[in-house]
Amino acid sequence: MSDIEWEDLRILDAIVRAGTIADAARDLGISASTIYRRMTALETATGQSCIVRGDGTVVLTDAGRALARVAHTTRRGVLDVQGAFRAKETAIAGEITLTTVEALLPYLAKPIVELSDKYPVTVTLSLTDRGPSVRDREVDCAIAIVKRPPPSCWGRRLCKLPYGVFGTKQALARKTERLWVCREESEKSSPESAWERENAGRIAARAKFAAVVDLAALGVGVALLPRLLAHMKGSLVEATEHRESVAHLTRTAWILTHEDQRKTPRIAALVDALARHFDEFKVD
After folding, report:
1. Residue 3 in 3-state DSSP?
2. Residue 191 CB neighbour total at 10 angstroms
3. Co-location of 176 and 212 in the same domain
4. 138: domain CATH number?
5. Are 184 and 134 in a shared domain?
6. pTM (2 d.p.)
7. Chain segment 184-214, per-residue pLDDT in tens
């Protein structure tokens, strides 16, 4: 047995958090072959098999789980120390990391421009449905669509997100059965997908949520969308007959940060800018 490299433990931790080798490689900005090579080095150093090679999904051995716990604890400890240091900052400067879903990107431009004009800050975006965690200090802030901030997170409510069914005039006026654009199967546990299963007719396309918005705007079919996003697309018109049935789907968008970072000047500046600009886009 030889010394274990921390970088190999960091990669193992990333594999566990991502769920697959391919997703971990994307998150780390390295190739899948590099990950496999580093896992081989880790197994050589420990004399133990750590992961079961397969179709890309992650199955840990007992040794792998033990090492993953060490990696997770170490990463959390480092992030906690960094968070404590950042909480003492006094200048509005430096990098701010922010994660949210890709569909909200158009609403981030004005706040980012405002911050950049006033302060020497850089906003680093992670646009994904499965983003890094504020609670685990993997990112400074997140715009999340949740009922309430999770434990250890502080949140500021940005806006309500009522839903509607939208399509182009041509899609709504189809003489035969309307075509629908729905969320992909991986989102089947969401309330929106449950509504689609009960109410959508013939499905022309399934896609990730951000693509659903664009496909509806291009006339592929009608779609269940937050009105905030539908109003961004000038080609979309609401099918008002669905308003009552979608009323219960109304969600809330929050800006989240770690509790001990909420008063850090650069974080507070981003939160304030986002809150101001989202207020401009509120819809009924």
Report:
1. coil
2. 12
3. yes
4. 3.40.190.10
5. no
6. 0.68
7. 887 788 899 999 999 999 999 999 888 999 9
